[in-house]
Amino acid sequence: MSPDRQHTALAARTATDSSSFVRNYTLTGGRTRPRYPLSLETELEPGSGRPGPGLPEECRQILALCQQRRRSVTELAGTIRRPVATVRVLLSDLLDTGALVVPVTTGYTEPADKSPLGPRPTRQLLEALSVGLAKLSDDPPYPKAG
Hints:
The chain is mainly α. The protein is 50% helix and 8% strand. The protein contains five helices and five strands. The strands form two sheets. Strands 2-1-3 form a three-stranded antiparallel beta sheet. Strands 4-5 form a two-stranded antiparallel sheet. The chain is globular and about 50 Å long. Mean pLDDT is 77; it is low at 9-18.
């Protein structure tokens, strides 16, 4: 490949990477942290709430995917081809509206034989509890950009 073609290809790739970064920034309104502690394996399912009218197309894609079956944060990020950090912020918005929920489907405790300390809450229960408590809180977990 000639040096001119290499330079052109590099410039095109840089422009694409830059526009992707700006697009993710605008999707989240400049926010970089989600309001809820969502791990990579946290599963989500549709809730009874409705999303607001101003949500981006990616939120509609997430809702459509979750309508089909439960999806993890990682699976959603890979399917809509967005960084996990961006998807976590979008998921927080959908959790706020009640359009998505973190279900508790497994037992509330792990069997005593799996933990030397005896029965303890499952990770899924703790994540669902954390999201629910954060929704009840009057103070946001981080200051809003403004």
